[in-house]
Write a structure and sequence with these properties.
23% strand, 4 helices, 5 strands, 120 residues, Rossmann fold, alpha/beta, five-stranded parallel β-sheet
């Protein structure tokens, strides 16, 4: 069996989403890690960078935006998916060339489209 071709980090403080999203996004070529906090997600990412970081924007402690900024500081062309129930400033798109915004509620197909874009 070949190693996963896509490493995905999901950061969300909503337990239902943390439990559900990996099941919906599961595939043989994916390695999915789930974290409740941005701080934990950043530690995992710095230990072994992910291909895509998908994070809720509104989190306790460090926000998803702060997580994205930290990841982009380390890897300027990192793929980040910011998920929010609120409208985000268009300037957020200028954070990096591979930053995507997905509005809640979302269809899993929106996330799959970003993952497909990443894997080319």
């Amino acid at each position: 069996m070949s190693p996963p071709s896509l490493r995905l980090l999901i950061v969300d403080d909503d337990e239902v989403l943390r439990d559900t999203m990996p099941l919906l996004l599961e595939a043989d070529d994916r390695d999915i890690t789930v974290c409740e906090t941005a701080e934990d997600g950043l530690a995992h990412h710095r230990a072994r960078p992910f291909d895509v970081v998908l994070t809720d924007v509104t989190l306790a402690g460090m926000s998803g935006l702060q997580l994205a900024q930290a990841v982009l500081h380390d890897i300027p062309d990192a793929w980040i998916v910011l998920v929010s129930g609120y409208s985000l400033d268009p300037a957020v798109r200028a954070m990096g060339p591979n930053v995507r915004i997905v509005q809640k509620p979302f269809e899993i197909a929106e996330i799959e489209a970003v993952l497909a874009e990443r894997t080319g």
